[in-house]
Amino acid sequence: MMRILLLFCLGCAGVIADAAPIRIVVPPAAAPRVAYGAQQLAAAMTAAGLEPQIVTAAGGEPADTVVLGAATDAKMQTALAAAGMTLATGQPGAEGYGIARAPQGPVLVAGADDSGLLYGCLELAGRVRAAHGLPATLHVLDHPAFALRGPCIGMQKTYILPGRHVYEYPYTSQLFPFFYDRAFWHEYLDMLVKNRMNVLFLWSGQPFASLVKVPEYPYAQEVDDEQFRQNVAMFRYIAEECDRRGIWLVQMFYNIILPKPLAERNHLPTQLKAPVPVAEDYMRKAIAEFVKQYPHVGLMPCLGEALQGTQNQIEWATKVILPGVKDGMREAGLKEEPPVVFRTHAMDPQAVIPETLKVYHNIFTETKYNGESLTTWQPRGKDQQTHLAMAKLGPHLVNIHILSNLEPFRYGDQQFIQKCVQAARDRLGATGLHLYPLSYWNWPDAPDKTNPPLKQWRRDWIWFEAWARYTWNPDIDPVTDRAYWIRRIAEMYGNDAAAAHILDGYNADGECAPRIIRRFGITEGNRQTMSLGMTLDELVRPEKYGVLPDLWESQSPPGERLQDYVAKEFAHQPHVGETPPQIIREILDYSQRAVADFAAAAPLVTKNRDEFARLQNDAACIRAMSQNYAAKANAALFVLRYEHTHDLKDMETARTYLAESLDHYRTLVNLTRNTYWYANSMQTAQRRIPVIGGMGGQPANYHWTQLLPVYEKELADFDARLAALKAGGTAAAHAELLTVMKGAPFEVLSGNAERYTVKVGAPVFTDHKYVIQSVTSALDGLKGIRFSDAAAKANRLGPIEFSTTVPVRVLIGYVESDEPGWRKPPNSETDALAAELGGTEPLILDAAKIKGLPKIVVYSLSFGPGRHRLDPRGFGSYLVLGVVTADGAQ
Ligand code: SER
After folding, report:
1. 171-209: per-residue pLDDT in tens?
2. From the alpha carbon of 304, which atom of ligand 1 is closest?
3. What single DSSP character describes residue 84?
4. In degrees, to the nearest 5, what angle opens at C-alpha 552 toward C-alphas 547 and 558?
5. Prediction pTM value
6. Residue nearest to atom 6 of ligand 1 (CA)
7. Whose CA is nearest to atom 4 of ligand 1?
8. Ligand 1 pocket, 345 CB below 6 A?
9. Of 105, 241, 536, 819, which one has the fewest beta carbons inside 10 Å?
């Protein structure tokens, strides 16, 4: 055969482009992902001016051949050895590949498995593109460090559907147009495979009623027949398109969430805190049907949030979910157990997971990396122990969950991300990554105010790419890595020097939000939207707002909170770890450097200028946000000092800082007013900090503009308080403002409970000697409800029915005790439903002294006029210390 050799002189010595056809020899009956890899390779060759042909049999000149094959194949190993690559036992490692070529020899691509061949083809395609031809010699051996690497998509909305509860969104084309858009899937899945991600999770409360028919429960189907037909077709299509790209599709679901029609038919709520027979039967059958219909799609159960109690969760997992999977396996003729990924969220994993392993073997676990924020690469404490315990039991994934402290801004701090991936491996024992997008609840749209909306996977390309890159190889050296990112950013913005500044800007900006939340936040959870700021009271008295100690005990390096810092100053004790003044300095420094970096890049940018302008605006926002927090944390420090000194100068200084923080907040408002639709993608009552996100499913308080009046009033109130102090009204100004509680009319309808007057001497249960010794004046004289403590403790009290003619709040007293039998206060960290009925923060921290009981903390539950069942979340006994008008207790 006549061969025409074209030597290209493009800085890629030794590259040969060959005008003769190049045969890409794929093994006969190659898996779809191998065929996909071969196609991508062929496309790269075509772009490089070659003429590729995909064939299944070798032939022709060796130098015109690319041979794809199994690394375990003896012939392939001989050929590799001839090309200078000898594989050691275990090489190249799962999903790995070897690529070898001796001069004038064939190109050999040897995969450890089908995915390895796919990635080998993609690697070779990249080299062909870079070299504008087939490199004359090759020697590459690689495999991923993490076994599972991939993102999730929330089948969720920013609001709650009318008549529904949190997480309840059937699959419909109206709610989720992207799900039915094949062009979207092509582009998105191509992006995932390009980043060598190999798993995709879809999140839903109750997916089965949209995806399978259960013959015994035809009425459970939540969508009409035409929609159902489309859902099945799309789900199969997505699973196939994933598989073609080496991606394992996994469906996540919460428990126990019932299909609405099934719940209604059986007079049940849609969200159950304990199993009932019809729920067990439906779910087991629905899961079996799912496994039968979609045998290669995985399942990821979240055993909470609605489902409460370890025993209930164990039973639900071992008697409903896993038997359902096994039934489906049998019906589908599967020989091996498909993996089931259990989330450890909202449960006691050390009690539950070992029980699940007794009935099923192929179990993976998944735990949040830094809760629902990104806070540190030094995770430690209790949460670290959970990860390590899970990693001992089997394959374990870290979940980069909701990014409550990063949203809505872009995040591209590759250095921070690399250290987190190393920590996931080295400190937490993880071998898998489950990655949230930056704006989870509104997939696929980004929060930027553009028309049409930006798409998240394009806007946040660096977010996805960085996590993928480091889960493939967490140890890339900094010099190689910097060159890589500069090249990638230059592809986007057209200039290497600009790219270097932009990379530095990303890396500086990315240090601010993690520091702010971990030292000053109330929670890493998604009930706090960090970029909307915090009130001074939240900074000074976080204990009033359901503060989460895990934030600084597990999700931060060692350090001090504002309160600890001031207490130590006055006790002349040494400081330990990160201190608030240090964090204040650091966030001001990093955010200023980022602004300077982006300013230096600006004149050099030649491509995608609009996007660059948005990125630069983000840096300005992060600067204003950091300044706002720095000034407000300083204000809080001086208020806390004042509590020790009673020196008005401290309050004056606090006032100066508070006014400064408001100025920075105004800057943030101005920077975001026309650039962002919202600060947070979850805009419901589940949001609590800085203020509640909305009630009745209606979004509220999601934009900086909406919070400005809150902060303006805060400064005015502070001024009034300061003026009162100056006028000598010390006692009044020091006094906490007691919320006025106004008793509301109500009747107890069920025979298991009775009204009583909350006052000194009154027993708080019908069967017990627990008697009020003193009570805070806000509650004194209100009408409460009492019942049998023993029955409540044994969970045989039954629902308490009551009626009212006005909107009310029922004041629930929780006994602060670890003894079993006492109901626990609501925890919106692990139970999103709790927030729908009202207070997930304590209303009164020390409500009453009751003989024989520890401290009583009061929370409230909201009810409209009408007849209701009172049954606060959880199990065990509690007190009802009043029923007040809705406006009487905020
Ligand atoms: N907090 C909820 C969960 O962890 C939603 O993000 O599932």
Report:
1. 999 999 999 999 999 999 999 999 999 999 999 999 999
2. 7
3. T
4. 155
5. 0.91
6. 402
7. 345
8. yes
9. 819
